[in-house]
Design a protein that fits this description.
alpha/beta; Glycerol-3-phosphate (1)-acyltransferase; 7 helices; 7 strands; 15% strand
Length: 245
């Protein structure tokens, strides 16, 4: 039975992703002169997220802290990173933002093509010129009042302990004088089966939007303090979230 249900989940999610791509493609053409920030096409990912999560009977996704989001403000969004399921879950914030995502993800059929059409930011790991360029692009989006989402661990953590945070996003937030919106993900590592395609157990997933960390008062040399402050807040939320499962 698990195998039959799993086939349905993967097949249904694939169809939804193909549909998303064609909707984004058509709207990208129709609204090209009027939607330079790709807000209309980005918003299509909201119904896709709802549908993919609703389709999976093994996922119990709970979202809290949405009251901490002011949709009129522009943020540097900082999230921990556990699995590919993070993408679907983070759209539950219903926020406008640009991801910073590794270049290989843009090559994944349909979902990666959507990332390209919506003008998310492509990162080539280990390429210094690419790293400089993503911060330039991120800075330009922030100046256009578009939030930017970073996974500062750089790669998915393989345990409940988060990887060390890299500095770039925090330097950028201070430079552009933008507040940081910390987001904590819990349970997404278990949401996608490892080494198998069959869903076997129900997984509790939490998305917790934490209170904003303002950056006024932080100088250019204070990025490490800001980094550690944000990391501690996400780490604490993750520990409390695991206890309250």
């Amino acid at each position: 039975m698990n195998a039959i249900i799993s086939i349905g989940i993967w097949f249904g999610s694939g169809l939804l992703t193909i549909l998303l791509f064609f909707v984004v493609f058509v709207l990208n053409i129709l609204f090209f002169p009027f939607d330079k920030r790709k807000k209309i096409t980005h918003a299509q990912c909201f119904w896709w997220s709802d549908a993919v999560i609703g389709l999976n009977p093994y996922w119990n996704v709970r979202v809290s802290g949405l009251e901490n989001i002011d949709h009129k403000r522009t943020y540097v969004i900082i999230s921990n990173h556990q699995s590919m399921a993070d993408i679907a879950v983070l759209y539950q914030t219903k926020m406008q933002f640009k991801w910073v995502a590794k270049a290989s993800l843009f090559k994944v059929p349909f979902i990666g093509w959507c990332l390209g059409l919506i003008k998310h930011i492509k990162l080539l790991r280990g390429d210094f010129a690419s790293i400089k360029e993503i911060y330039h692009q991120a800075s330009q989006w922030l100046k256009k009042d578009m939030s930017v989402l970073f996974f500062p661990e750089g790669t998915r953590s393989t345990s409940d302990k988060m990887n060390e945070f890299q500095n770039g996003a925090f330097k950028l937030a201070i430079k552009e004088k933008k507040p940081i919106l910390p987001v904590c993900l819990i349970g997404t590592r278990e949401a996608i089966p490892k080494g198998n395609w069959i869903f076997k157990t129900k997984v509790s997933v939490k998305l917790i939007v934490l209170p904003v960390v303002e950056t006024y008062g932080f100088g250019p040399g204070d990025f490490s303090l800001l980094r550690d402050t944000v990391r501690e807040k996400i780490e604490t939320a993750a520990a409390l979230g695991h206890v309250s499962k």
